[in-house]
Design goal:
- This protein is α/β, with parallel strands linked by helices.
- The strands form three sheets. It has a six-stranded parallel sheet with strand order 7-6-10-11-12-13, with helices on both faces.
- The protein folds into two domains: 5-96 and 303-322, NAD(P)-binding Rossmann-like Domain (Rossmann fold, 3-Layer(aba) Sandwich); 101-294, 3-Layer(aba) Sandwich (Rossmann fold).
- The longest helix has 20 residues, at 303-322.
- Helices cover 37% and strands 20% of the residues.
- Helix 1 packs parallel to helix 13 (303-322) and helix 5 crosses helix 8 (159-170).
- 40% of the residues are buried.
- Bound molecules: nicotinamide-adenine-dinucleotide.
- Residues 76-77, 97, 100-101, 104, 155-161, 178-182, 220-223, 225, 230, 248-250, 274-275, 297, 299-300 line the site of nicotinamide-adenine-dinucleotide (NAD).
C-alpha cells in the first residue's frame, strides 16, 4: 500500500480517485490557485501533481517543490508543463494519450453534421426569430447536403484521426488521410448491432491529394509546424469550393485570418472549431461568424473519456510507485 499524496489540482474522475484511494494514496481535489500552488504543494507534502490543461506547471513551480516525484496530465497535450524543468529535477511526467480519442472524433462529426445543415446558425436564429420568420428561415437553411458518400480528408492519422476514420467509414463516407509518419493503418469499423467489426486498411496519400479531393477536412496533428499554420491561404486555394473544415487539434493549425477570408468569399462553406489561437479569449469575429460551429475546447469533455482518463492516470501512478 502506498501512502503517497496526490494533488489533483484540476480534479479527477471518481473512478480514478477510488482506485488510488483503494491503493492507499491520499487524493486532494481542492484547487490551489496559480499564486498558491507552490505553497499548497509544499505545505501538503504532495508527491504527485495531477493537472488537466488549466494548471500551469512552470519551471518556477518545479524548482520550488523538491518533494514532487510525478506529474500527471489528464489528457493529451503537455504544453502546460515545462518538460525540460521536470526532466532536470528527475520528475516523471505521464499523460493519457488514448483515452479521449473517441470523444474528440464524435465532436468532429457533430461539427460536420452541424455545418452541412446550418445548425450552428439555425439554432441561434430559430430561438430569436423562429416564431415570426419560420418560412424565410426554412428557405435560408433549405439547401443542406448529406455526409454519406462524401470524401472526408484527415490530416494527421494518429489516434484521433483513426478514430474519426472508423466512425466516418461506418457512416458511408469515403475517407482519405495524410500523415508524414504513417503509410497505412487498419481501422476496425464497428457494427455494434451484431457485435462485429470490419477491418479496413487506409493507405495515406500526399497532403496535396487531401487538400484537392476532400469535401471536408479535419485536422488531427500535434500542433503548428515551426510556429506556422498547416492550413493557410495557399492550402485553402487548392481545396474544392464550399469545403467544410474542422479543427479540434490545436488553436492556430488553421490560420484564422485565412479562414475568415475564405468563409466570406464562400471558398470555405463552413468550419467547426473546438480550439482557438488565443484561448481562453478567442477572437470575437470567429465566434460570431454564422458559418462557424464553435465549442470551447470540449473534445475530451465526456463522461466516458473522463472516466478512462482518471483510471489510466491512477493505474500509471500506482505502477510508478510500485516499481
Ligand atoms: P497522435 O500523436 O496520435 O496523432 C497525431 C498524428 O499527426 C501523428 O500520427 C503524426 O505523425 C501526425 N502529424 C504530425 N505532423 C503532421 C503534419 N504536419 N501533417 C500531417 N500529420 C502530421 O495524436 P492524437 O491523440 O490523435 O491527437 C491529435 C491532436 O488532438 C493533438 O493536437 C491533441 O492535442 C489534440 N486533442 C484535442 C482535444 C480536444 O479537446 N479538442 C483532445 C485531445 C487531443
Amino acid at each position: 500500500m502506498s501512502s503517497k499524496r496526490i494533488l489533483a489540482n484540476d480534479g479527477i474522475d471518481d473512478s480514478g480517485k477510488a482506485l488510488l484511494e483503494n491503493a492507499g494514496f491520499f487524493v486532494e481535489t481542492n484547487k490551489a490557485s496559480e499564486g498558491h500552488l507552490i505553497q499548497t504543494l509544499n505545505d501538503g507534502a504532495f508527491d504527485v501533481l495531477f493537472v488537466r490543461s488549466a494548471t500551469k506547471v512552470t519551471a518556477a513551480v518545479l524548482d520550488a517543490c523538491p518533494g514532487l516525484k510525478l506529474i500527471g496530465r489528464a489528457g493529451v497535450g503537455l504544453d502546460n508543463i515545462d518538460l525540460n524543468a521536470a526532466k532536470s529535477h528527475g520528475i516523471k511526467v505521464i499523460n493519457t494519450p488514448a483515452a479521449s480519442s473517441q470523444s474528440v472524433a464524435e465532436l468532429v462529426l457533430a461539427h460536420l453534421f452541424s455545418g452541412v445543415r446550418y445548425l450552428q446558425d439555425s439554432n441561434y436564429k430559430m430561438r430569436t426569430e423562429g416564431h415570426e420568420k419560420f418560412a424565410s428561415l426554412k428557405k435560408k437553411y433549405g439547401s443542406g447536403i448529406e455526409l454519406r458518400g462524401k470524401t472526408l480528408g484527415i490530416i494527421g492519422f494518429g489516434r484521433i484521426g483513426q478514430a474519426l476514420a472508423r466512425m466516418a467509414a461506418g457512416m458511408g463516407m469515403n475517407v482519405i488521410a495524410t500523415d508524414p509518419f504513417i503509410t497505412e493503418a487498419t481501422i476496425k469499423v464497428e457494427i455494434a448491432v451484431n457485435n462485429t467489426s470490419i477491418p479496413v486498411t487506409i493507405k495515406t496519400v500526399p497532403m496535396q491529394d487531401v487538400l484537392m479531393l476532400s469535401d471536408f477536412i479535419s485536422l488531427h496533428v500535434p500542433g503548428k509546424v515551426n510556429g506556422k499554420a498547416i492550413i493557410g491561404e495557399h492550402e485553402i486555394a487548392m481545396m474544392k469550393p464550399g469545403i467544410g473544415l474542422v479543427n479540434a487539434a490545436r488553436g492556430g493549425v488553421i490560420d484564422e485570418d485565412a479562414l475568415l477570408h475564405a468563409l466570406d468569399t464562400g471558398k470555405v462553406g463552413f468550419a467547426g472549431l473546438d480550439v482557438f489561437e488565443n484561448e481562453p479569449t478567442p477572437r470575437v469575429d470567429l465566434l460570431h461568424h454564422p458559418a462557424i460551429s464553435v465549442s470551447p475546447h470540449i473534445g475530451a469533455a465526456t463522461a466516458e473519456a473522463q472516466e478512462r482518463i482518471g483510471i489510466e492516470l491512477a493505474e500509471q501512478a500506482i505502477e510508478f510507485f510500485a516499481a
